[in-house]
């Protein structure tokens, strides 16, 4: 294919087809370029602020949706086709249909509370606090230092 000169008509086609969630291969065929060129032009348009892609709405996983996706897979549809029909990405289909994961995420019961630590009461000691400069406490603090044997400064 020859390099495409992007004009307003080619951009409008790209934007319209991306809004319809068409794959880049179909867009490239309609415009007459490679799919990589269509992908890069879409990136350039998004970079300059053009709303190229109408994003998919975030779907919540539900048992009904999982059952519908499994039925479609049993009918022989690919994960990509299932994803397009349901409105999620292909990775989401693969993750949701993974047998190692639960079909619906578990949530803690509403009545569950965070355990709190028991209140610790201070232990009553027989000796009160010693005043500053007390010879016993000052001697214990200064033993083996240059202040050993010197009185409390103050």
Keywords:
154 residues, Arc Repressor Mutant, subunit A, 44% helix
Structure description:
This protein is an all-alpha fold and 154 residues long. Among the domains are: 8-47; 56-106, Arc Repressor Mutant, subunit A. It is 44% helix and 0% strand. The protein has helices at residues 8-19, 24-31, 35-47, 63-74, 79-86, 90-96, 135-142. Helix 1 (8-19) runs antiparallel to helix 2 (24-31) and helix 4 crosses helix 5 (79-86).
Within the CATH hierarchy, at the fold level, what is the topology of the domain at 56-106? Answer: Arc Repressor Mutant, subunit A
**How many strands, which pairing sense, and closed or not: the largest β-sheet?**
none
Percent of residues in β-strands? under 5%
Overall CATH class of the domain at 56-106 = Mainly Alpha
Radius of gyration: 36 Å
The DSSP helix count reads 7
What is the N-to-C succession of helices and strands?
HHHHHHH
Architecture of the domain at 56-106, CATH level 2? Orthogonal Bundle
Unreliable stretches (pLDDT < 50, length at least 5) are none
How many DSSP E strands? Answer: 0
Provide the helix percentage: 40-55%
Derived from helix and strand composition plus strand pairing, the structural class reads mainly alpha
Shape type: elongated
């Amino acid at each position: 294919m020859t390099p495409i000169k992007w004009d307003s008509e080619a951009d409008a086609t790209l934007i319209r087809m991306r809004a319809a969630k068409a794959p880049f291969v179909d867009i490239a065929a309609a415009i007459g370029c490679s799919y990589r060129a269509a992908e890069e032009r879409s990136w350039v348009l998004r970079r300059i602020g053009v709303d190229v892609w109408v994003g998919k709405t975030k779907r919540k996983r539900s048992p009904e949706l999982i059952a519908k996706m499994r039925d479609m897979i049993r009918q022989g549809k690919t994960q990509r086709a299932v994803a397009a029909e349901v409105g999620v990405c292909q990775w989401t289909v693969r993750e949701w249909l993974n047998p190692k994961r639960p079909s619906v995420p578990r949530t803690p019961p509403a009545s569950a509370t965070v355990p709190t630590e028991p209140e610790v009461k201070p232990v009553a000691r027989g000796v009160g606090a010693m005043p500053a400069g007390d010879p016993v406490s000052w001697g214990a603090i200064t033993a083996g230092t240059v202040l050993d044997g010197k009185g409390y400064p103050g």
